[in-house]
Every structure is written in C-alpha cells, then in structure tokens.
Amino acid sequence: MKYSSPSAGRRPGRPLSFDREAALNAAMLLFWRHGYEATSLSELTAAMRVTPPSLYAAFGDKKQLFLEAVRRYLSGPVTAQQLIDDADTAKAAAWSLLAGSAIAFTGETTPPGCLLATGAISCSAAARDVQVELARMRGAIQDRLRDRIAGAIDMGELPCDAEPDALAGHVMAVIQGLSTLARDGASRDTLLGIARMAMAAWPPELIRNGG
Fold first, then answer.
1. pTM exceeds cut of 0.90
2. Which of 25, 95, 164, 197 has minimal Cβ neighbours within 10 Å of its Cβ?
3. Rounded to the nearest 5°, which phi and psi values hold at 154?
4. pLDDT at 105
5. Domain 80-199, CATH 1.10.287.130 — does that match?
6. Is residue 12 classed as helix, strand or coil in its secondary structure?
7. In 3-state terms, the chain is what percent helix, strand and coil (to 5)?
8. Residue 197 CA to chain centroid, in angstroms?
9. What are the pLDDT digits (tens) for 3-38?
10. CATH class of the structural domain 20-74
C-alpha cells in the first residue's frame, strides 16, 4: 500500500505551517502506544506540535487522523502484501509474516505490539466504525495469504487436503497473540520461538517434478 503525498486530500488555502509527515508519524506512534480511544486530542496536538485547528485542517477529525496513521503503519518499510507475494512458497510467506511481526513488535524505537491490534482492543461500541475498518484491513491481509495458500494447493506445492482458510486464520491469530505478548514484555527471541512452533502446524510441502 502506497502512502499518499502530503498534499492529497487537503483543502486548498493557507499552506501548512508544520511538517505534515513528522506530525503524522508522531500521531502514529502515540496511537500505537495507547490505542485509538485512549489517545486524547490534547496528547495528539502536543506530540504532533500542532494546534487543534491545524490538526483538523490537515487531517480532518481524530478518526480520519487515526485511519491515516494506520495506513502509514501498513505502508512500510515492507508491507504484508510484499512479504506474501515475494516469498518463494506459501509456507515461506506465512513464516515471513510471523517472523516479520515478531521483529516489528519488538522494535527498539517503536512501541511494543501491533498498531492494528492495539487500536482494535481499545475501541468501544462508540467507535464501532473504527473497529470495522481495522477488521477490514486485517481481513485483506488474511485473504491475500489464503489466496496464496490456495494457489499453492493448485500447483501441487501443498497437499490437496490442506485448508487455506484455517491456515491463513491460524497465522493471523498467532500474530494477534504475538502482539499481546510483546505488549506484556515478551522478548523478540520468545516471539520468534512461538512463530516457529506455529509453523509446525503446517502440512509438509510437496516436491514438485520439474522444479
């Protein structure tokens, strides 16, 4: 997913008096640490170094700011789509997602865990539309992995009785669990060990004739 240019979606008029990219990054980190509803407008404006009117002019309301921060989070430096598409096999794609999550959730300069998971857990019924959008984003990743697994079955890479929905769902469930453990203080080595155990549930890959 590509991040739009700083001018996209902004009303014409007086130029922004702050660095939009830096402000959005600060908001992303704050939402990542505290979640959507637990992050107040005053905390956002202080971290972003903007006034409330400037925030609204540049990003719209708090919900739109949060969703843009999530899109930024998902856009790089390596996306889930890239990890799935660039892997040599479906099993390697699953491992890339799990290992990449374990590493990303334990970064030295970022909050622990996953922004998608943090945002979803902290949302109440009043922010149901935010929950729905986060679920849609996670579902898109799961669907792409499921399609890669289904293709692997068709190509004879995985046995015909492998279950694409269950395997993709299992990976996403483990990723959610890794996020919770990271927020509880689990180390990167611990998360990678859990990821390796999760891969033990996968069916063995088949040897294909002709490469």
1. no
2. 197
3. -60, -35
4. 97
5. no
6. coil
7. 65, 0, 35
8. 22
9. 333 333 444 444 557 799 999 999 999 999 998 988
10. mainly alpha
